[in-house]
Every structure is written in C-alpha cells, then in structure tokens.
Amino acid sequence: MSKLFNIFVSLVAAVVLTxxxxxxxxxxxxxxxxxxxVQVHIDIGSQTMSVRVNGFPYAYxxxxxxxxxxxxxxxxxxxxxxxxxxxxxxxxxxxMPNSVFFHGGYAIHGTGYIKNLGRPASHGCVxxxxxxxxxxxxxxxxxxxxxxRITLSN
Length: 154
Hints:
Order of helices and strands: HEEEEEEEEHE
Number of strands: 9
Strand order of the largest sheet: 3-2-1-9-4
Oligomer: single chain
Low-confidence stretches: 15-31
Structural class: alpha+beta
Helix content: 10-25%
Number of helices: 2
Radius of gyration: 23 Å
Shape: globular
Mean pLDDT: 86
C-alpha cells in the first residue's frame, strides 16, 4: 500500500510541475484576447455607421467617406491610436477632433462640414458629427482600444 501511495504522490507532483512550467512559459501576448466590446460598422454605400456595445445597439450615425478620386479602405481593423486633438499633416492642417485611427493615416474623426454628412466628401477618412465623434472617442477609451473592432464594407 505504501509503495502504491508513493507512486500516486509522484505522479501528482509530476502533473503539477508540468502544468506550472507550461503556464509560466506561456507569453502573455499569446493568451486569449477579449472579444470586441465596441463594434463599429461603417456602410460606405449608405454612408452610415452603426455602433454596438457589448452586443447591444448603441448608435446609428450619418458619416462621410471618400469622395470620387479618393479611397476609404474596406475590411476589419483594430484601433491603432487615438488623438483628442489632431491636425492633418497631409491636408493643410485640417482639424481632426476625436480621431480614432484604424489603418495607417485613416481615422474616424469629427468634422465641421456637417452639411456633407450622409454623402461621400472626404479624402478617405470617416467623418462624423463632432458630438458623435466625441461619443465614439469616449467609448474607445472606456473599453480600451484593444476591445474595439472597426469594419468597413460597401
């Protein structure tokens, strides 16, 4: 009986050490990522944006994307950076308040040209009413950029 007990204790110790070593060697960056808490969908065809938070509808806003001769990227993106106050280096220091960058220099941001919302008018960014851009910017910071998914489709 004592020999059987010693074998059992040895096996349990080996299992515990194996799992402890495996967990300690797993880099944090490889651990599961939390699902998107904020889902932003931009429909370029209808020039609208819908926002869902934790799966529930939050907002539905008019936007402006690229006018003819320019391009707004399509696809699914994460947030790469944000800027409360930003001025375009490429387009004559144009103001881009509450910018949420998602692909290189492309961002969702507020605009002063609210009369153009609902139709293509930008150089490629996604323009929003300034108050809606502030709401989106706030959501990104509340839930964290890593928990935001931005999808653009036709």
